[in-house]
């Protein structure tokens, strides 16, 4: 997951490849609660691991359920319809699928519970559900603003005496989750037939289908008359199916369906695995909308393949009430259409993670679009000409879908980057969204930003470069370690480091599985950080670096680190030789006295005794050698910015580099 303050997406062009999407949020949280309310153990496969499921799992643990997690498989040992723990304070984050069904289940079971969430959760309505629960005889109090969480349930000791004779009436026009909540809670108390009547036009209907489908898997067959009246038969009792698989998330799929429709198809098709035409999720019908706009989509029971069809996309005018979440993706697709697109009947957008109609309109306007919004619709004029697009920093309102949707603006024909603020908000339902997107997206190498940090030994360039990379979410290349790792890999492969093995070592170097992560150097799965710093490793590195074809291979390897979303490269010839076109080159230095002191501290901390004077003499000798050698001498690139950090801290150096970087961005 990108936990950076922002993520700058370079202009993207093509896309192709396979994505395996994480589990459905709506299915995961329903299955978790149903398993918790059932007896025995339910093994849930492919469960989504995200903020929304984590709050549900934490609540179930607090309530005394058994939770055993192994990778994406979770075993839930349920309560068999009885409370084990009768008092708890439950944090629900911003998960509607957690707070609403749990409120209903705990309210009918009795006990004394408080449920609260993030500030936005306290602005998301729950009044219609509370009204229905109060009709039933449950004790529910608002501890903040009436109509919104936080809530206090029960608190009077004895379980509530429920009035089940009359139909329970619930409004369905603000959120379908209130009806879902009652449908999941009432089987717990169905000593007689329990009838629920929906007041007002039910929205987001397909989510009720998911609820009914999963209830059936847990032994509850609900009789229904249209969308108005639902009857839970007397004697209903939860029965665990034993094992259950969670489909991949169809709403998450919408970004990749759109990606396939928007990206140039040169790199092939986008294939989505884990969800397909047989999905029980309503958002699978996003496929129909994408086809209307011109996407070519093929599919099987649990896969989809998408490629660009009509281009520009076709504008649409669509009632999106059945796909409220995925419809946001259509709004961004509309920027690439041949006329104005209108998405209707989406009033619920205003009470979700943020006011999504306002958010989408505001942010699309930043990109240059003309957007009209009404109480329950949004109309988007396309950005027909490249010159109409603007580079923008997209505010994401702690809304995962705003962040995911706007990543698709990086495919703009103007070749402009897009900044996504607070990218970690995708953790609500898809923590690795950006990694997944970038793994199938392509762009011309020249679009991928590179920041070079060159400088002499002990100038702090490694520390600064690592920190800059971390702040930007960019890859990191420690070019100095390359020769050492190559030498190590050669010895591990049994290759003596000499001219007889030059070709073999060069081949090895070309695809060396080296990574720099978490301040460590990895060779395939091995942490070789310490191993490459020994005296012997240094000697071998020097021998390897004398082999011309290995040097050439290592240039290619260094170039291969230039990957999306960007690279910070540290070394001695990054700006001069390896990445001469880099977007920012910094030459970091410090006085010899200062560097000798730093190196001294470093060595002392490792228990190696030495004197500052001898270190300084070594440094000066090495500087002289490095800057006078004929191949890639150590010198600042002509267009490098010089930073002498003798008198400033690492943090200040990092901030300076970032400030220079910021100064070159178009946002
Ligand atoms: O029941 C569900 O799983 C959901 C129902 C929908 O909410 P509304 O019914 O409030 O539209 C949807 O937006 C939400 O992401 C998940
Ligand atoms: C509306 C959403 O979430 P929630 O389940 O919290 O309602 C969503 O995921 O888009």
From TrEMBL:
GO terms for biological process: amino acid biosynthetic process; aromatic amino acid family biosynthetic process; chorismate biosynthetic process; pyrimidine nucleotide metabolic process. InterPro entries: Cytidylate_kin (IPR003136), Cytidylate_kinase_dom (IPR011994), Enolpyruvate_Tfrase_dom (IPR001986), Enolpyruvate_Tfrase_sf (IPR036968), EPSP_synthase (IPR006264), EPSP_synthase_CS (IPR023193), P-loop_NTPase (IPR027417), RNA3'P_cycl/enolpyr_Trfase_a/b (IPR013792). SUPFAM superfamilies: EPT/RTPC-like, P-loop containing nucleoside triphosphate hydrolases. Residues 17-437 form the Enolpyruvate transferase domain. Belongs to the cytidylate kinase family. Type 1 subfamily. Belongs to the EPSP synthase family. Catalyzes the transfer of the enolpyruvyl moiety of phosphoenolpyruvate (PEP) to the 5-hydroxyl of shikimate-3-phosphate (S3P) to produce enolpyruvyl shikimate-3-phosphate and inorganic phosphate. This is Multifunctional fusion protein. The gene is cmk.
């Amino acid at each position: 997951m990108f936990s950076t303050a922002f993520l700058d997406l370079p202009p993207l062009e093509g896309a192709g490849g396979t994505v395996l999407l994480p589990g459905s949020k709506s299915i995961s949280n329903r299955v978790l609660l149903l398993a918790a309310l059932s007896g025995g153990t339910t093994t849930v496969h492919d469960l989504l691991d995200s903020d929304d499921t984590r709050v549900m799992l934490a609540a179930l643990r607090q309530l005394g359920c058994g939770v055993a997690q192994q990778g994406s498989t979770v075993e839930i040992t349920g309560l068999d319809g009885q409370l084990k723990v009768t008092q708890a304070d439950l944090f629900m984050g911003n998960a509607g699928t957690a707070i609403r069904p749990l409120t209903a289940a705990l309210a009918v079971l009795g006990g004394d519970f408080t449920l609260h969430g993030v500030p936005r959760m306290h602005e998301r309505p729950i009044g219609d559900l509370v009204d229905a629960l109060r009709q039933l005889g449950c004790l529910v109090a608002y501890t903040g603003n009436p109509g919104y969480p936080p809530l206090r349930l029960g608190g009077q000791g004895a379980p509530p005496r429920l009035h089940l004779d009359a139909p329970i009436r619930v409004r369905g026009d603000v959120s379908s989750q209130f009806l879902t909540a009652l449908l999941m809670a009432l089987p717990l108390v169905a000593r007689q037939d329990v009838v629920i009547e929906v007041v007002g036009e039910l929205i987001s209907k397909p989510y009720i289908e998911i609820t009914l489908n999963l209830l059936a898997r847990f032994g509850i067959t609900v009789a229904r008359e249209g969308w108005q009246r639902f009857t839970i038969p007397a004697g209903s009792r939860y029965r665990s199916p034993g094992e259950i698989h969670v489909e991949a998330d169809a709403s998450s799929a919408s970004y990749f369906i759109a990606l396939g429709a928007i990206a140039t198809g040169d790199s092939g098709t986008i294939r989505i695995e884990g969800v397909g035409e047989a999905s029980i999720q309503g958002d699978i019908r996003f496929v129909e909308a994408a086809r209307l706009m011109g996407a070519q989509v093929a599919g099987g029971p649990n896969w989809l393949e998408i490629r660009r069809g009509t281009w520009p996309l076709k504008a649409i005018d669509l009632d999106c009430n059945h796909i409220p979440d995925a419809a946001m993706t259509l709004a961004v697709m509309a920027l690439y259409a041949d006329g104005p697109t209108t998405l209707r009947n989406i009033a619920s957008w205003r009470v979700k993670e943020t006011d999504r109609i306002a958010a989408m309109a505001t942010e699309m306007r930043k990109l240059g679009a003309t957007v009209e919004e009404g109480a329950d619709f949004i109309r988007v004029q396309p950005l027909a000409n490249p010159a109409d697009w603007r580079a923008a920093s997209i505010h994401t309102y702690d809304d995962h879908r705003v962040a995911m949707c706007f990543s698709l603006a990086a495919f703009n024909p103007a070749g402009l980057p897009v900044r996504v603020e607070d990218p970690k908000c995708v953790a609500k339902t898809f923590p690795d969204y950006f990694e997944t997107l970038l793994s199938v997206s392509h762009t011309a190498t020249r679009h991928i930003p590179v920041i070079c940090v060159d400088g002499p030994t002990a100038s702090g360039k490694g520390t600064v470069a690592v920190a800059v990379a971390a702040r930007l979410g960019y890859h990191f290349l420690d070019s100095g370690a390359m020769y050492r790792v190559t030498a190590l890999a050669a010895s591990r492969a049994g290759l003596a480091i000499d001219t007889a093995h030059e070709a073999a070592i060069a081949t090895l170097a070309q695809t060396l599985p080296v990574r720099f992560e978490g301040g460590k150097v990895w060779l395939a799965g091995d942490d070789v950080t310490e191993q490459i710093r020994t005296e012997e490793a240094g000697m071998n590195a020097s021998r390897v670096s004398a082999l011309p074809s290995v040097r050439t291979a290592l240039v290619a390897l260094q170039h291969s680190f230039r990957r999306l979303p960007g690279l910070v490269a540290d070394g001695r010839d990054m700006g001069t030789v390896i990445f001469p076109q880099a977007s920012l080159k910094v030459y970091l230095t410090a006085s010899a006295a200062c560097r000798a002191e730093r190196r001294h501290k470093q060595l002392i901390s490792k228990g190696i005794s030495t004197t500052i004077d001898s270190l300084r003499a070594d440094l000066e000798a090495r500087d002289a050698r490095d800057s006078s050698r004929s191949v890639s001498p150590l010198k600042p690139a002509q267009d490098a910015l010089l930073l002498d950090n003798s008198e400033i801290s690492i943090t200040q150096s990092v901030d300076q580099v970032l400030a220079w970087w910021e100064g070159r961005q178009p946002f």
